[in-house]
Amino acid sequence: MPLARPHIEPRRVPTADSVVVKEIYLSVQGESSHAGLLCSFVRLTGCHLRCGYCDSEFAFHGGQRRKISEVVDEVKALGAPRVEVTGGEPLLQPGVYPLMEQLLASGLTVLLETSGAIDVRLVPPAVHKIVDMKTPSSGESDRNDYRNLESMNANDELKFVIGSREDYEWSKRLITEHRLLDKPYELLFSTVYGKITTKDLAEWVIADRLPVRFQLQMHKYIWDPNERGV
């Protein structure tokens, strides 16, 4: 396992009243235990990682700085009972914490999609955190912040995106070494789209009797994987 690079510390600024937003849209949730459910998405700008399988490079730059209250109003107007805050890496923006708090206060179910490279300990406990665990084929596995394994709770899910047999074996070792099957959160396995077949990964999981949730990135099978706003 490669040595981790220095961590970026989470930074919460309670007075922050804005975030830089790349896009807001309505769709169905494509992955996690919430897959298939109507969901609004707030995609924030910026990411410090450059994963080889990234599907949202367009969110690295640009966007518009918007008041948190305006973002919440737009999400509520979309009419879905749940919202996912994603990126990029949303935890790079201090305003993401008051944003999540205000979305929760509006009665919404709030999901957070995060890279796993920033500790989630400051995220409100009621938020459903979907935390990526960067596998070797991402090129960023040395950025994993393993403090997340203790910061997550029963609301949360740890996601392994598998692009090769090496990724799969690496993920199994990590599960064993960190006793992840004893944790309260769920473990998700999915493929890097176009790298290995879903059949291969499903059969590996079955052969090893691995008690994880096998999942597809459903939205990539419904729409063009390069299509925006889905």
From TrEMBL:
Domain of life: Bacteria
Entry EC no(s): 4.3.99.3
Keyword list, A-Z: 4Fe-4S, Iron, Iron-sulfur, Lyase, Magnesium, Metal-binding, Queuosine biosynthesis, S-adenosyl-L-methionine
Top EC group: lyase
Catalytic activity: 6-carboxy-5,6,7,8-tetrahydropterin + H(+) = 7-carboxy-7-carbaguanine + NH4(+)
Residues where Mg(2+) binds: S56
Pfam family for this entry, one: Radical_SAM
Residues in coiled coil: none
Cofactor entry: Mg(2+); [4Fe-4S] cluster; S-adenosyl-L-methionine
Binding positions (S-adenosyl-L-methionine): Y53, C54, D55, G88
Molecular functions per Gene Ontology: 4 iron, 4 sulfur cluster binding; carbon-nitrogen lyase activity; magnesium ion binding; S-adenosyl-L-methionine binding
Residue numbers binding substrate: V28, Q29, G30, R43, T86
GO biological process: one example: tRNA queuosine(34) biosynthetic process
Annotated positions binding [4Fe-4S] cluster: C47, C51, C54
Pathway, per record: Purine metabolism; 7-cyano-7-deazaguanine biosynthesis
Cofactor note text: Binds 1 [4Fe-4S] cluster. The cluster is coordinated with 3 cysteines and an exchangeable S-adenosyl-L-methionine.
Domain Radical SAM core: 34-225
Stated role: Catalyzes the complex heterocyclic radical-mediated conversion of 6-carboxy-5,6,7,8-tetrahydropterin (CPH4) to 7-carboxy-7-deazaguanine (CDG), a step common to the biosynthetic pathways of all 7-deazapurine-containing compounds.
Subunit structure: Homodimer.
Family: Belongs to the radical SAM superfamily. 7-carboxy-7-deazaguanine synthase family.
Protein name: 7-carboxy-7-deazaguanine synthase
UniProt source species: Cystobacter ferrugineus
